[in-house]
Specification:
The protein is α/β, with parallel strands linked by helices and 439 residues long. It is 43% helix and 13% strand. Strand 7, helix 10 and strand 8 form a beta-alpha-beta unit. It binds pyridoxal-5'-phosphate (PLP).
């Protein structure tokens, strides 16, 4: 076979810039998560990882699913293995409406856009709404993957603080007033009302209408992200913001209620947004994976998925209890944390002087990993916070992990008491790219 001639040009030789010098400016905000840098060590079996947000799939009925997969290929293989509609499989969109009805949402399947996980929906919504420099409001702290999408489109995040009842309406109003005085209207408020990632809190029902009214008064859209809504420990299901206001853009996912690896999520959008979102989705992936959508659709149709969600929830509640008990037993005075009534996370505040980001390598050396609070703020705060996930490890491992963590924290406290509060590491840093180890 003839060897192809190397490319020649008669033009004068121009030194080609290295790829890194040609990256688009918007990639500058993309940084790897802190825990990812330690991932090789943190994922060793002897390390208890309380860092990741991986759902616990141990309770899934794998044999029944295997039969479903075989049947799907055998009967519907020609469809399941083919491209599909950009907006998603129609039957699944109808079933998604039934799922959302559990949280009081009345929706038309035509307004549902199936996405590759709700992460893709976050990316697409940001893509169609945000120009560089646009302001987005988000709770402080907020989901690392959302902060990553906002950074990728060069949106500026203004955080609004929460208390134990979620986003504080008065602070939301203050933030909007301040921004309005500067002539700035945020593109949207991004909010995780239920079992927040990472803060573990839930927006009080009495606050929900108020938050919507404040946003409406300032002409700001609401982007509601609700992957954990059905994972409450008390059996209570909170009304979605979207159930109170049809203009809310709502994101949902099967990652936490079924299987995260299938990457099936969705956006429910007002009709005026739908066509633009579908075009954006089409340009990103042509269509969401047909096979995965049909598998989710069959699972919803043929399995008692509500009981399965209950089984998941019971496992998470047991793990949460193990974590809370271990924190109470092992952490010295001066530490505070919330008591989540659903979801995956406990948010811990440490005494002044301890820097959770600087401490992380020492924790990993002590064979425990967590997510430092700094990853959950776009403005560098969070060095006195850390997020502990109880979703994946067994209760015994959780107890052992917290015991190890307490040892590291006590050693840090000794240093603080002996040498005083150290100068803080510089606060300013960019948001991190999401990864399975920090989602
Ligand atoms: C608040 C929040 N939104 C979105 C996602 C992304 O989920 P998905 O797997 O559907 O992309 C996560 C994942 O952990 C999350 O915690």
């Amino acid at each position: 076979m003839p060897v192809p001639e190397p490319l020649r040009s008669s033009a004068p030789h121009v030194e080609r810039a290295r790829p890194v010098e040609r990256f688009a400016a918007r990639t500058a905000g993309m940084t790897a998560s802190e825990i990812r840098a330690l991932f090789a060590v943190a994922s060793r079996p002897e390390v208890v990882s309380l860092a990741g947000g991986m759902p616990n799939l141990a309770a899934l009925p794998l044999d029944a699913l295997a039969a479903e997969v075989a049947d799907l290929v055998g009967r519907d293989g020609q469809v399941a293995l083919q491209y599909g509609a950009a907006q998603g499989v129609p039957a699944l969109r109808e079933q998604i409406c039934e799922v959302m009805a559990l949280e009081g949402i009345r929706a038309d399947p035509n307004d549902v856009v199936v996405t590759v996980g709700s992460q893709m929906a976050l990316d697409l919504v940001t893509r169609i709404f945000c120009d560089p420099g646009d302001v987005v409001l988000a709770e402080g702290p907020s989901y690392v993957g959302a902060l990553g999408s906002f950074a990728a489109y060069q949106a500026q995040v203004v955080h609004v603080a929460m208390d134990e009842h979620g986003l504080v309406p008065g602070l939301l109003r203050d933030a909007l007033r301040t921004l309005a005085a500067r002539g700035s209207t945020p593109k949207f408020l991004y909010t995780i009302p239920n079992f927040h990632n990472p803060a573990g809190v839930t927006l009080a029902v009495e606050r929900r209408r108020e938050v919507l009214e404040i946003c409406a008064a300032y002409g700001v859209s609401v982007l509601e992200d609700n992957p954990y809504g059905l994972l409450g420990f008390t059996g209570r299901v909170y009304p979605a913001l979207r159930s109170l206001d049809p203009d809310v853009i709502y994101l949902g996912s099967f990652s936490k209620t079924f299987a995260s690896g299938l990457r099936v999520g969705w956006a429910l959008v007002p009709p005026a947004v739908r066509d633009r979102l579908v075009l954006a989705a089409e340009s990103a992936t042509l269509c969401p994976p047909t096979f995965n959508q049909l598998l989710v659709s069959r699972y919803l149709a043929t399995h008692d998925w509500r009981s399965q969600v209950k089984t998941f929830t019971e496992a998470y509640r047991e793990r949460r209890d193990a974590m809370l008990a271990a924190l109470t037993t092992h952490l010295p005075d001066g530490f505070t944390w919330n008591i989540p009534d659903g979801g995956f996370y406990v948010w811990v505040t440490v005494p002044e002087g301890i820097d959770t980001k600087a401490m992380l390598p020492r924790a990993v050396t002590a064979r425990v990993a967590y997510a430092s609070g700094t990853g959950f703020y776009a403005d560098g705060f969070g060095s006195r916070q850390l997020r502990l996930s109880y979703c994946y490890p067994t209760p015994d491992r959780i107890t052992e992990g917290v015991r190890r963590l307490a040892g590291v924290l006590e050693a840090e406290l000794d240093v603080v008491h002996t040498f005083g509060t150290p100068a803080r590491t510089p606060l300013h840093r960019g948001p991190q790219a999401p990864s399975p180890d920090t989602t």
